[in-house]
Amino acid sequence: MHDHPHPLGHGDVGSVLTRREALGLFTTPFLLAFAGCEETTAGEDEPLSGSCVVRPELTEGPFYVDAELLRSDIREDRAGVPLALAFSVSRVAGSACELLPGAIVDVWHADASGAYSGVGSQSGTRFLRGSQQTGADGAARFTTIYPGWYAGRTPHIHFKVRSPAPSASAYEFTSQLFFDDALSREIYTSAAPYATRGVQDRSNASDGIYRRGGARMLLDVSETDGAYTAAFDIALLID
User: What is the pTM of this model?
Assistant: First the structure.
């Protein structure tokens, strides 16, 4: 059985917690996700760190497939703008953050046409899905493409961070990553094969899931010679 984050109100999303506040959220064991933390000597009523910010857990969505595909290159035959995506996973330990090796990071998203593998007419496929186990450096890296869009949603990537095997201390955190609207419009109007469909029909601000804390899940993307890279730091508070 996996433990999930305690429901947080909108006022908690993006807030910096003191250790007393963080521990006060516990009623049963659960998981809370923060931005990467810096070492500090903070007491109970001082912030854990200036960068320990709550990351909102967002819906898994209908397209998760427990495929157990341990691979870093998840593209298969899908065409699109290259995207290198790196996760750095830590856990809150006392008043600091320490790297979390051995965690499983799952990633899945739509192809350039807006289609997901593993469901519907694509039920026999597994493109743009994969898992990596974090190493001693807490890192999990994926080679993929910039995700396409589908009606009613802003462009996004799903991910899950979970314990490697069921146990009394099992944990699981699920959320979504988002992109700057201007970058998506640029790619969808100028790059093949996205340009045949044009721009997305939902901006971030008009996406119901993004409005539940997506600004804290916005990727900082850089570009070199037409290829994109993004890194995402996340720290888990595991009881």
Answer: 0.81
